Amino acid sequence: MTRTRRWSWLLVLIVGAGLYLLVLRTLVATKNPNFVPALILLGASVVPAAFLAFTQARSGHWRVPASMLAIVAFFGGVIGVVAAGTWEYDVLRDLGVLPMVFVGLIEEVAKLIVPGVVLFAVFARRGRREPADGLVVGVASGMGFAALETMGYAFTALLAAKGDLGAVEQTLFIRGLLAPAGHTAWTGLTCGALWAFAANPHLRQFLTLAATFVGAVTLHTAWDSLGTVWGYAVVGVASLTWLTVQQHRYRTFDDRHPRIASQRRAPSVLAG
Fold first, then answer.
1. 126 backbone dihedrals φ, ψ, rounded to 5°
2. Would you call 262 helix, strand, or coil by DSSP?
3. Angle, helix 183-199 to helix 113-124, in steps of 10 degrees
4. Nearest CA to 74 among 175, 151, 180, 145?
5. Model confidence over 170-206: pLDDT tens digits?
């Protein structure tokens, strides 16, 4: 079972890619525009979903059920996109410009709304507060946000290209492939640090949380500002490397904090 879970991401990727190609082939063959929404949905969500499965399988513990991750991805994506869009519009209206750093700051805060509610609910029920769980929940919220944002860009590309599917495919491929190195990684990092602070509320953990959030906003701003393949590559490698390092650290977090070890021995409200 453990081996199956560790490689579940590959199944998600293969099945999702197969469905995407099936819809694309049918769309091209029939020229029926009714298939376009399905194409955009699959193209925007397959890679982020596979990355979420990959992160969950390597979090050290399979304690966050798929049902909760699906809820976080859906509501985190919808609420995050709506909140970010509203706040960005308000800033643009008030200032007349929207600096990239404001975009990064607003979107990173918006993606934390639903994970914050989840964390509060866990506290209310006195469940576990392991950073590894927070990291996975953050990746789920970032995944939903990234998928919805990509769907928006793909739809805009379709309109701008006057129905040319080539523009849609290019947008879906580039943004879908880069999604794990962007929103999903940044939100996963911040939520992992947030859960770590909640589990061990001391000044050092708070400073770590603040530094992590600033780092996520900085990476986000750099991503939006550079606009080159090499720039995306550098920021993406930095984001994924940081996420991998933190994920490894969180696997042994409870060993360094006895209170978390005692929580692990207790039943989890997140367990499926």
1. 55, 45
2. helix
3. 30
4. 145
5. 899 888 888 899 999 999 999 999 999 988 888 999 9
